[in-house]
Amino acid sequence: MIQIGDVILDPSDPLVAAALIGGAILLVILILLIMALRAAARSARAAEPLAQQLGHLGQHVQGLAQGQEGLRASVQMVSDTATTGQAQLAQTVEQRLASVQQQMQDRLADNALRSQRSLTEMQERMRETLHGSSKQTTTSLTQLQERLAAIDKAQDNITKLSGDVLSLQDILSNKQTRGAFGEIQLRDIVSKALPNDSYAWQPTLSNGKRADCLIHLPNPPGPIVIDSKFPLEAYEALRRAETDYDLKQAVAAMKAAVKKHIADIAAKYIIEGETADGALMFLPSEAVYAELHANFPDLVREGFDKRVWIVSPTTCMATLNTMRAILKDARMREQAGEIRKMLRNLHRDVELVVERAGKLETHFDQARRDVEGITTAAERAGKRAAKLDNFDFEELDREVEGPVPITDPSRAAE
Asked: Cα Rg for the chain, rounded, in angstroms?
């Protein structure tokens, strides 16, 4: 470093190096000038051309001095610019450091706020989760209590149902109560399928026998009897059979019981001229009915031969619905004469309506013609009023002198 007054010059700087080189050149020139002046003192006369050259050289040296001065000013300007840039750079760095510090503080504050908010939300969710779990546990306990109560109630119902089953077994174990059970089931089915006036309960026939139910069907086929039978002992023996001997005994008992019921119904409730040529044996058990049709087809054929048709609750309902259609058709035939009479009266009423409609149409035609005449007269009166409205008396006074001729009204209308 080279310090000249308050200015510090750096030899590595190109401008400073150029200035130093220029100074060295100037120093060399001064030395040469001094040497030339000394030589000129000895040979002044012979060196007039040299003096002129020295004058030119002095001018060049002066120009070099001026250039050196400009170079020094440039160096000073560069130094000032560097100082100013360094100050601005320091200020910019301080501003950026302050800005970065402020941004860091803002981010730290924002992160702290977010962390606090996330912690609060997490605490709220945990509280809600704990509250929901507690509420759900309470609800589950309540539902469990309700289900336990329902189970207790179901247990009571099962106990009651067991008692009912036992009582049903007691009912079915007695022939009289079993017959009453079948009649009650038959009453329920018949009352739901047929009108009240189409059947009778416990009617007495001409032979003195009383049937469970008599359906009043028209001839043919005529009134038909439904009798309830329930061969429960034979069926239970068949179900309990474990050996071949027990099975044979149960099959024989089943056949004997059903054959006896079919024979009794055919002998008691099929009366020629009084009832239909057939009767129905009602079995109040679908299981017994299915057993007969599955394993005892000969009993079913024997019932067909004696015109005794075996029905279960399901097939009995279907049969009764068919009977209901027959009753409806018979009642329609009974009312056919009344229906034809009503149709004749209806036809006469229709003819009267047509006749009166024709007279009304005639009146309408006359009224239409009157309306058309009124419309024509109104149009004609309107035209005449329009002509009178367009009639200009002042124009007539100006053009015609003397009395105004009066035209014939009939021609004016034309």
From this structure: 70
Residue range of the domain that includes 272 = 176-334
Q: Which residue has the tokens 């399901």?
A: 314
| Same-domain status, 363 and 296 | no
Given this model, what pLDDT does residue 3 score?
61
pLDDT band at 46 (very low <50, low <70, confident <90, very high): low
179's tokens: 């017959």
Is residue 165 domain-resident? no
Based on the fold, state whether residues 330 and 349 are members of the same structural domain.
no
Query: pLDDT (tens digit, 9 = 90+) per residue, 206-219?
Result: 888 888 888 888 88
The secondary structure element, H or E, covering residue 278 is: none
Question: In this structure, are 184 and 286 located in the same domain?
Answer: yes
Would you say 259 and 205 are in contact if contact means Cβ atoms under 8 Å apart? no
Contact criterion met (CB below 8 Å) for 211 and 202 = yes
Whole-model pTM: value is 0.40
- In a domain, residue 43? The reply is yes
Whether residues 354 and 330 share a domain: the answer is: no
pLDDT band at 1 (very low <50, low <70, confident <90, very high): low
**Is 138 part of a structural domain of the chain?**
no
Residues 291-325: pLDDT tens digits? 888 888 888 888 888 888 888 888 888 888 888 88
Which has more pLDDT, 203 or 111?
203
Indicate whether 99 belongs to any domain. Answer: yes
Report the run of H or E that residue 224 belongs to, with start and end: strand 224-228
Confidence of residue 197 (pLDDT cuts 50, 70, 90): confident
> Is the domain of 359 the same as that of 261?
no
The structural domain count of the chain equals 3
pLDDT of residue 172: 45
Residue 227 sits in the same domain as residue 370: no
CA–CA dist 7, 71 (Å, integer): 13
Give 78: exposed, middle or buried? Use CB within 10 Å, 0-12, 13-18, 19+: middle
Asked if 272 contacts 301 with a C-beta cutoff of 8 angstroms, the reply is: no
* Beta strands 279-282 and 308-311, pairing class: parallel
Prior bond to 195 cis, omega within 30? no
